[in-house]
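<instruction>
Derive structure tokens from the sequence

<record> Sequence and structure tokens follow
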Amino acid sequence: MSGDSNETDGKNRVDEVELAALREADWKELHWRLRSLAHQRVALEAQEVNLLVEAEESQLYRRLGYSNMTEYMDRELHWGPHAANERLRVARELMALPLIAEEFKSGELCFSAVRELTRVATPENEHEFLTKAQGRTARDVERMVAGLKRGDGPEAKPDPKLIKKKIWLEVEVPIYARYRQKRTALDKEANKRLTDSEVLDRLLRDADAPLAGEVPKPAVQVALTTCRHCKESTVSVDGEQVPIDRATAERLTCDSVFIGDLESNVLTRPRPSIPESIRRKVMHRDGFACIVPGCRAKRNLEVHHIKNRQHGGQHTVENCGTLCSGHHDQNHDGRLVISGGPGNWKFEWFPDGGIETATTAQPWIFDEDDGDDQSVLRGSATRVRHLKLVDGEPTPGEVPSVGSPPVRLRIVKPDDDDASVPRGIET
């Protein structure tokens, strides 16, 4: 009996070893099969992309009664409009990027990674991007090229203004209807089509908006970090440090709460950049409205240092003014310069390209006219109009007189070198 038992135990152990070896081979075989399928799937996507170029050039869709390639891809290939357009874009780009196309064709580079690389790579530097992208996930490649523009190398400094983040929301129909109504109302209020970022920013600000007569909280409720050495700033988003440009960092720190040095163990209390008492006084003085002439904003308000803290500006009511977030952005971007003080604010605009606008056109100077019976109007345009005043009452479309008898006025464009003429708006 003992011999039979030992023989049975030995056989069982052999079976377990063989089963373990089989399982070891099984998972390796399984991994190899899955990897092979992944390569085949990517290679098929690459083949499809190549065929899409040929289909578009031959206008295949027209032979089947479709109006364009997007409709053809939606109905026949089951790609939605956005996915279809992205695949067409990638297909066109790959015609000039042979190295990326080859890696895609071999199945080594998935479509998501190819999509991101084709946004920035050129025939001259595609090999550099491929070297850096090797072994990275599609998400890592997306982060790698974020903030870069076409022609930049993989080691180039990203432009924070080019970095975008996507938000996917799935809501019920009534919520979606309210969102569409609110977005339409915001577009009408701004008198333009707002971007997704602008819409969401306004919705979030409205959610945090104070009641009537209450002083708004500081605008910044996110973590902003500035390197003490290079002075570059980042904000923390989902565990990722996303860089922002200097102008945006200055605007955010202008009206924020400072929590202390993140590399120090010293216990510090949160400290607002503008003392609460000063913020309250400034808001009340400015009537809870933006001080920029012509601006009607009474929401999304922030307190701005007229003379920046970096240049010696103080936390005083004389050095602080209320701005809406839009004009605050323009100020820190350098397109709007504010000087003076309460009751004597001065505003100067500097549009991109130096073009003349309603806020930068040279002002008119009014002088009494001792000449003929007609007033001459000379504006920034070269044309001249004659405005006739009849017994103090202007005819329709003419300039009304002030007082009695009417004063004949001539409006003359000042010389460019006349330093006595203001170039902005004073209040």
Remarks:
- Confidence is low (pLDDT under 50) at residues 364-369, 372-423.
